[in-house]
Amino acid sequence: MGVTTCDVLVIGAGIAGCTVACELAGAGVRVVVAERGAVCSGSSALNAGGIRQQFSQETSVRAGMETVRRLATFEEEFGIDPVFRQAGYLFLHDGGDSWRTLDRAVRVQNACGVPTRLVGPDEVARLVPGINVSDVAGAAHNPTDGYVDPNSMVAGFAAGARARGAVILQESPVTAIETRGGRVTGVTTSSGAIAPDAVLNAAGAWAPAIAALYGGSLPITARRNDIFALDRSPARGQFLPLTIDLITGLYLHSEGDGLVAGPAESFAVPDPPDNVAVDWEVLPFLVERLVHRLPMLDAAQVTHGWAGFIEATPDDNPVVGWTHLDNLYTMAGFSGHGMCLSPGLAPHVARELRGQSAELSLDIYRLERFERGDVAPEGVWGGSGIAAGMAGESAKANRGGAPEEGLRPAAAHGGSPPAKE
Ligand SMILES: Cc1cc2nc3c(=O)[nH]c(=O)nc-3n(C[C@H](O)[C@H](O)[C@H](O)COP(=O)(O)OP(=O)(O)OC[C@H]3O[C@@H](n4cnc5c(N)ncnc54)[C@H](O)[C@@H]3O)c2cc1C
């Protein structure tokens, strides 16, 4: 086998890798993508598809805005319907710390032009029929957020990358990275050797394993997060806002005639395997919260569940930028919001990979921030912040075994402590 040369080798064909490959190829860059499995076989295939602009930091708000803008013309551009339901996002709060965080974040969003509003319980009840607002002080609501079919979105970017000339090597894990003089000089994949001018590590939860191949390390932890489908919704035929309940610790949105829903908590998995199975023992505590928030779900059935990895950094912002070596760039660690941010960030990442300046400041995402300690955590909702809350204790207390037949509260809602933001 000869050595393949290219301008940029992208490692990983999830949302991060495919969006950047598409941008680069569109700019005439010779791109090869090496993917261990099939396109979209990591976390990008397993998430809730939520697309929001409700972040606490301007960079992320603007990236989310750009993602939403791109979704408006996505089908025209890529020939694939991303099934974007612009039903909004609703963050429920109890008037305490979660309200203060949302209040600050809403000001940042409004200054960027995102029409998020703080609303009261009456408006919450109007937006989500049948919701119990007895312990809800209010919510942050942005009607221009929504949710997509994540597989279609990645498929579109992958198709766009190929149409613009990128080569995507599937079933081609990267197994070795050679360096000399502070640069990557060669990369070994099961499909052969590649000599790239630059490398993009877009391997999601496995980005630290890629970094380890050249002796680097990244502060990204793979955290298993479980998600379940329910056979009914309080508003059949209507798309509910993607509702994040910061009081009990759950999220949900419409899916067909039913809902998908998941708990806030995620669980660290050291040395993550390629796939992770759903843990049905999580279901009782999710059920308890769901039935508290939407009592009509007491009669619902859980039809299936699955799990994926959230790739969490200590501050719930991704690592984006040149890292460790002169020609090695990392875009990973999205901490539960890679679908929201990657499409919006990709044009800027592609510019930096081409030696140009990004048009959006990416400073809050640089790896060096962890040494400097000068960037606040994302705060609104993310992988590690939430995991640090009641998760482990609640899960352990409710360990019960087999999947539930239907939704039954494990116990009367006892006012669990709020998920930490
Ligand atoms: C249950 C759940 C719900 C979520 N909900 C949302 C949501 O609503 N909205 C949102 O924005 N985000 C959500 N997320 C997070 C989102 O899924 C991720 O942030 C996003 O998919 C990360 O994309 P990525 O491209 O960085 O990683 P991935 O999609 O994981 O892609 C990395 C790729 O690298 C490949 N790879 C790994 N090792 C190698 C190797 N050695 N060689 C070659 N290739 C390799 C993998 O096979 C994989 O395809 C959720 C996650 C979970 C688990």
Give a quick set of tags describing it:
single chain; 421 residues; alpha+beta; FAD/NAD(P)-binding domain; D-Amino Acid Oxidase, Chain A, domain 2; binds flavin-adenine dinucleotide
CATH superfamily of the largest domain: FAD/NAD(P)-binding domain
Order of SSEs: EHEEHHEHEHEEHEEEEHEEEEEHEEEHHH
| Amino- and carboxy-terminal Cα gap | 50 Å
Strand content: 15-25%
Radius of gyration: 21 Å
Named at the architecture level, the CATH assignment of the largest domain is 3-Layer(bba) Sandwich
Roughly how much helix do the residues carry, as a percent range?
25-40%
Please work out how many helical segments DSSP would assign.
Answer: 11
CATH class designation of the largest domain: Alpha Beta
The computed structural class is: alpha+beta
Largest sheet: 9 strands, mixed
Bound molecules: flavin-adenine dinucleotide
CATH overall fold name of the largest domain? FAD/NAD(P)-binding domain
Give the total of beta strands: 19
Mean pLDDT: 91
Count of individual domains = 2
Shape: globular
Give unreliable regions as ranges: 384-421
